[in-house]
Amino acid sequence: MRRFFVPEQTLCGSEVPLFGETLHHLGTVLRLPEGEEVLLLDGAGTVCRCRIEALAKAEGKARVLERWQETETAFPVHLYQALPKGERMELVLQKGTELGIRAFTPLLAGRTIPRLPAARAEKRRQRWERIVREAARQCRRPCLPRLDAPRTMTEALPECDQELRLMLWEQGSRPLNEVLPPAPPRSAAILVGPEGGFGADEAGQAREAGFLPVRIGPRILRTETAGFAVAAILQYLYGDLGAGPGGPAPLKEAL
Which of 194, 254, 248, 246 is nearest to 73 (CA)? Predict the structure, then answer.
């Protein structure tokens, strides 16, 4: 059954208003008929099986037939990603969402691109949110990952509270397999630098915040690839990628 994310407040009652991108996709792109059933999600775990009752040009509506709660099965990973050049952050968000990453914090490091003017930054944020939403819909995640506004390392790292904290840094680092605990930690943070890597002062700042410098093999991966590689390893060891076809069954709780 087709799935779509809608604003959380629209799923409070028995009738769901349809507008914006969701209405356009249902009515114009897919041309679904009245009476068709779809799943509407609020991005926080609430899922509603709904029947489309109207799809007009300006607005539509659907009727809630069933409502339940789903939880994420992926191991909780927070990716701190230094902003790469061009549109590579879009790839990070899309593929990271597919791999089950719970939160993204774009970082402004010493070798990242300069800050954008406010108007361009807002347009970029809206595009990033659309990419995350579409990726979560496509890979059938019940919850939307958190996407922070770009922050400096000084602002972001002191707030990190993940149990396992990994910094991908080729200097003074240990192999990843030497630092991964045999028992699953509660959560993990992955810190990835920009093209050219972190400076020595930035690496020291990360160490002070509890991050362990690690490397994942003999090859130097691009900044937009490194986070994927480690996230996949963590999901295999501690999450749902090693659970066989389909992973663990989603937990359904009646509301």
Answer: 248
